[in-house]
Amino acid sequence: MLSIKVLGSGCANCQRVEQTAKAAAEELGLEATFQKVTQMPEIMKYGIMATPGLVINEKVVCSGRVPSKAEVTTWLTTAAE
Q: DSSP string spanning 27-57?
């Protein structure tokens, strides 16, 4: 099972990242747990300079922008291997 975390305050972009990741995981038929990380001290542990951030299996794959569904699909496929 994949662990997916969305790092950010819960803004519109953070919500888009979460929706995109959920849609990609569902499309691939992958089981994943989703977690929102909204506390700044926790976000800082991942070393990102801008939110939203996307973390798959504790690896930061994107930060500071909303990735495309195709990008997220690629990252999830790689993480699931």
A: HHT--EEEEEE--HHHHHTTT-SSS-EEEET
Q: Is 62 a catalytic residue?
A: no
CATH number, domain containing residue 14: 3.40.30.10
**Which residue range forms the structural domain that includes residue 52?**
2-80
pLDDT reported for residue 42: 95
3-state secondary structure of 68: coil
Of 4, 6, 7, 14, the catalytic one is 14
Domain count, the chain: 1
Q: What is the pLDDT of residues 33-42, one digit of tens each?
A: 999 999 999 9
Cβ contacts of 21 within 8 Å, gap of 6 or more: 4, 6, 32, 34, 54, 72, 76
> Which residue in 9, 10, 11, 12 is the catalytic one?
11
